[in-house]
Specification:
By secondary structure, this protein is an all-alpha fold. It has one domain. It is about 80% helix and about 0% strand. Helix 2 packs parallel to helix 4, helix 3 packs antiparallel against helix 4 and helix 4 runs antiparallel to helix 5. The chain is elongated. About 30% of the residues are buried.
Length: about 150
């Protein structure tokens, strides 16, 4: 049977472990790490837009869904692009990410305009460009130490 002192020691150990975990979680990230983190939603939206484009080309998604998805993705791309512009990350890292974020916005706008015009023939070439951007972003993230999603 444990003594009250033994239980207190265990409780103190757990409290110390919790404090150490909180301190590690609150460490300030470097500008490069912050930039890498801003790429996560971009990668997710690129995959979403690619699948949406493919489904739309196959007449399996309505144009209004494509428009609203593209608008939501564009908002995320715009935020990532602004973060990259303001980032204090190394320019050798920052510039390629910024270019991919800007290209993502451009392709997203092409998809949105195609959906407004109900031009499903544009969907597959757009999906291919989105897939290329996905691959490029994954390679860039991997090159800078982030595991691929």
């Amino acid at each position: 049977m444990r003594t009250p002192r033994g239980r207190l020691g265990t409780a103190a150990w757990w409290a110390a472990a919790a404090v150490a975990t909180l301190l590690l979680a609150c460490q300030k990230q470097s500008p490069d790490q912050v930039l890498l983190k801003s790429a996560e939603p971009v990668a997710s939206w690129l995959a979403t837009l690619r699948m949406t484009s493919e489904k739309w080309a196959a007449n399996s998604a309505p144009s209004r869904f494509v428009r609203s998805t593209a608008q939501a993705a564009d908002d995320s791309f715009e935020q990532a692009e602004r973060e990259a512009e303001r980032s204090k990350a190394n320019p050798a890292i920052r510039e390629p990410f910024h270019r991919i974020f800007a290209d993502s916005r451009s392709v997203c706008d092409q998809l949105r305009r195609a959906a407004v015009a109900n031009d499903r023939t544009a969907a597959l070439p757009i999906a291919q460009r989105l897939a290329a951007l996905e691959a490029e972003l994954a390679a860039l993230r991997k090159a800078h130490g982030e595991p691929s999603s």
